[in-house]
From TrEMBL, chains A, B:
Keywords: Oxidoreductase. Signal peptide: none annotated. This is Enoyl reductase (ER) domain-containing protein. InterPro entries: ADH-like_C (IPR013149), ADH_N_2 (IPR041694), ER (IPR020843), GroES-like_sf (IPR011032), MDR_fam (IPR045010), NAD(P)-bd_dom_sf (IPR036291). PANTHER family: PROSTAGLANDIN REDUCTASE (PTHR43205), PROSTAGLANDIN REDUCTASE 1 (PTHR43205:SF7). Residues 18-331 form the Enoyl reductase (ER) domain. One of its GO terms (molecular function) is oxidoreductase activity, acting on the CH-CH group of donors, NAD or NADP as acceptor. Pfam families: ADH_N_2 (PF16884), ADH_zinc_N (PF00107). It comes from Micromonospora pisi.
Amino acid sequence: MSRTGHEVHLASRPHGWPTLENFHLVKVPVPDPGPGQLLVRNVLMSVDPYMRGRMNDAKSYTPPYALGEALDGGAIGEVVASETDAFRPGDLVQHGKGWREYAVLDERGTHRIDPTVAPVSAYLGPLGGIGLTAYAGLLDVAALQPGDAVFVSAAAGAVGSLAGQIAKLKGASRVVGSAGSDEKVRRLLELGFDAAFNYRDQPVRRSLAEAAPEGIDVYFDNVGGDHLEAALSALRLHGRVAICGMIAQYNATEPVPGPRNLALTISKRLTLRGFLLHDHLGLREQFVGEMSGWLRDGRIRYHETVVEGLENAPSAFLGLLRGENLGKMLVRL
Amino acid sequence: MSRTGHEVHLASRPHGWPTLENFHLVKVPVPDPGPGQLLVRNVLMSVDPYMRGRMNDAKSYTPPYALGEALDGGAIGEVVASETDAFRPGDLVQHGKGWREYAVLDERGTHRIDPTVAPVSAYLGPLGGIGLTAYAGLLDVAALQPGDAVFVSAAAGAVGSLAGQIAKLKGASRVVGSAGSDEKVRRLLELGFDAAFNYRDQPVRRSLAEAAPEGIDVYFDNVGGDHLEAALSALRLHGRVAICGMIAQYNATEPVPGPRNLALTISKRLTLRGFLLHDHLGLREQFVGEMSGWLRDGRIRYHETVVEGLENAPSAFLGLLRGENLGKMLVRL
């Protein structure tokens, strides 16, 4: 075979907010799969906030993207050739080599998906890493208990909207969400959030005090900055913060000062824990069981924003960082 | 009886750093003990950083000191009259009504001490609340494991110097302390700290990187501010912070910005937990057993700075806030 396919390379490292110039669409030859490998044509790929961090050449616990090479990330592909008995042409698989038309995959890290259980895109959404992130953050990291009052920031985002709904399903007494537009606030209320506010309206501290006048027990943090500071003020005794993301800081070129009220952690005996999904994969089986049921019963609803075409993946990613998506941002190839 | 005695009142609430004008020495009549009560003459009292917080009229989980009334805090007294069978004149007792010559006490919250087990002052030091604070912070809050590298700030202070020594006794691979003078740094090395630095010499981040080039697993925080920021940078994967105090912020009149690198909590999956002693009193029996043994065997050493006279208690407290003490700051009456 002498196939060619397109892929998106990191052309240069962004300083502050990325621009389209940081990306480069390249046509490359597609290698044949070796023994134990398979070749897929991607049909759907994910863009996620964590990808911004990997564009920096900073020492971290996940390696940075290499300049002049294809980016990667969650994707779903259809098998076109297989040199392993585990997969056959036509199978749909979930894997980690997005940002390209064709991908050669190893068996390991490639999972067949069943489109009769849920729509294909759900495997990059509520049944995928973002769903498990929301679930693990609430249950493992923040030790959510029935009756807790919960605040979720960036709650109209992919992880946040699931976190709020899972909190309700797990018995939270009150779930409050913040978002960046009035339309998103309305959607949160439709999803069953007890209260929601537009963080651009007034200081977050004031909005949160109005939305949760008796305080909160758990804060699911996707934002950092003023949201974290407001949450520390609102948290009650023995409150817990699951720190999932700090999108407010990802594009900052100067270090962003932390919350000015961290001393409250002492008088209120608060716990703040940062987490990454891969420490919590042990929950996956339990999670898939619960989430499949919730989806089947219509108890979890989710939104997708789908952009068409690999060539538009960079602008989909930029839109994600600007908050233009509602729910999971996907690119259909 | 028509005894009179002196006590120290809060004359006005400090704004920023307290001054002697905020205190007032008053002569008052001493009431007789009622049924079930006892009257003690205090021989020793404690001044502690947490008292600064109680001088503010701020909503908190411990009530503020009242204006025009005696302050309180840990003290040791000799029983002079008893209306309960549990105590006899001549007994030495530990209790919570310091800052006065005579105190009328209830049985509850009053504990007889045994001066043959350890010197009387040790009951306001390593065998008292500060010892248990260090012990609970390391073991309960930071989940110290043998082999961990530990950083303690304000390490020449009463809690800090015990925390460092307990960490070594519990198997820490390396214990680093910070202090505010070269003399204190020398004392830390005498106490068995593996490394110590004067935080006034250069940025804390640099000093800590030199003292713990391979990073730390546990940070026992007494300071907050630049110390916490430096510790977040030095912490390794799954590191833990026990937040015991933030003395850097107690006298600030403007909110102090938090650490600029809190996003590290995500990539390194860090846990930060504030704590107060009274959530950990369940450890007291185990603690007293271990600490008595360590003191008897000379494996824990401690310093005291003793000021003479109740009338000098306010200046002892101010000196404590300025870091003039070495080890526990006490006032002998």
